[in-house]
UniProtKB/TrEMBL annotation:
CDD domains: SQR_TypeC_SdhC. NCBIfam families: succ_dehyd_cytB (TIGR02970). It is a multi-pass membrane protein. The keyword Membrane applies. The chain crosses the membrane at residues 24-44, 65-85, 105-123. Part of an enzyme complex containing four subunits: a flavoprotein, an iron-sulfur protein, plus two membrane-anchoring proteins, SdhC and SdhD. The complex can form homotrimers. GO terms for molecular function: electron transfer activity; metal ion binding. GO terms for cellular component: plasma membrane. The heme is bound between the two transmembrane subunits. This is Succinate dehydrogenase cytochrome b556 subunit. Its cofactor is heme. Heme binds at residue 80. The lineage of its organism: Bacteria, Pseudomonadati, Pseudomonadota, Gammaproteobacteria, Pseudomonadales.
Amino acid sequence: MNSQRPVNLDLRTIKLPITAYTSILHRISGVLLFIGVAVLLYALDLSLASEEGFAQVKECLQSPLAKLVIWGLLSALLYHLVAGVRHLVMDMGVGETLEGGKRGSQIVIVVSAVLIVLLGVWVW
């Protein structure tokens, strides 16, 4: 093994391409959705259990923190959806080149940002 090869272990200095960022964000949004579904299912169960439970969930959802959490979960859902559509388009053979991948990642980020801002206006 060549011990003279360069080793860069400082993650702050590594320049990742935009496609890597969209891929990492797609995975993170999937994990957030997995956790968020558990929380939302618990709230659904509590709201369907009794009238008091429904009132409790309704009151909880009126708080700014709950609105922020809901906005975050819906933002993760929108980003995951847009990035997933990009993957489906790439599965059909569109945008498989290096330049096409970069363009697709840029489109995912722009479309997701616009939808997330519109979602924030709707939630708040």
